[in-house]
Write a structure and sequence with these properties.
241 residues, mainly alpha, 8 helices, 80% helix, rod-shaped, 8868_t:CDS:1, PLAC_motif_containing, coiled coil
């Protein structure tokens, strides 16, 4: 490598490091609606002229998620003591900082002192057209999501209980079926035992009958033999029978 390449390489690394460490500053923006565009929305215009505290509270609520009623009461108290211009100037500066809108303290004070309704409408329209959700909206969304998660969990628990009940009922059915089969088996065994006992008794009775018949036959044969012996000795019965 040449000496020139050794010299250019550290310069390129330095520019890359500087580029990543110091981001480019963002350019200040302008108001989306002009100061005298308040007549485009006659509802906001009338509200700013006759009830400025209401539109002020709505703008503050959309800007930083604060309580609309509290901000409305705060502006009403400032109007009662003649302090609304200072309050509006400070609030306009905060709104510009949130949106990175160009301007200054003197300009804000002049606008609020000379054109209070126009300033109120301009600020309200700026945050009404904002696409980003406010802190209050984010909290509401989080609460909704938590509620949905709880509902899902409750539904899953109910489904698990139903499944457990079905499993329990199935287990009971299986136990009853096994018991019924066991009873049937016991009944069949008892029936077969009874049949075997009956056959044995019948065989015993038959054997006894055969024995009695044999004994009677033997007795008859003995008596006949006795008579024959008497006839052979004396020609007639001499046994006195």
């Amino acid at each position: 490598m040449s000496q020139a390449s050794y010299q250019t390489q550290p310069q390129m690394m330095q520019t890359n490091i500087q580029g990543t460490s110091t981001p480019a500053p963002t350019q200040p923006m302008t108001w989306k609606h002009g100061l005298f565009d308040c007549f485009n929305n006659m509802g906001d215009c009338c509200l700013a002229c006759w009830c400025p505290c209401i539109i002020y509270g709505k703008t503050k609520s959309k800007a930083d998620g604060s309580d609309e009623t509290a901000q409305c009461c705060c502006f009403f108290c400032a109007m009662c003591i003649g302090f609304w211009c200072c309050l509006g100037t400070v609030n306009r500066g905060d709104l510009r900082n949130k949106k990175n809108i160009q301007g200054g303290l003197i300009e804000d004070a002049a606008i609020w002192w000379c054109c209070t309704p126009c300033a109120l409408v301009q600020e309200h329209q700026e945050f009404s057209d904002s696409r980003g959700p406010t802190t209050l909206q984010l909290d509401q969304r989080m609460q909704q999501q938590q509620q949905e998660i709880q509902n899902i969990r409750q539904q899953q628990q109910e489904e698990m209980q139903d499944v457990r009940q079905q499993q329990f009922l199935q287990h009971v059915d299986n136990v009853l079926l096994v018991n019924w089969q066991q009873q049937q088996q016991n009944f069949r065994t008892a029936k077969s035992s009874t049949s075997a006992t009956s056959d044995t008794n019948a065989a015993t009775d038959s054997t006894a009958a055969k024995s009695s018949t044999t004994s009677s036959t033997t007795t008859t044969t003995a008596v006949a033999t006795k008579y024959n012996i008497c006839d052979m000795r004396c020609g007639h019965c001499c046994c006195g029978e």
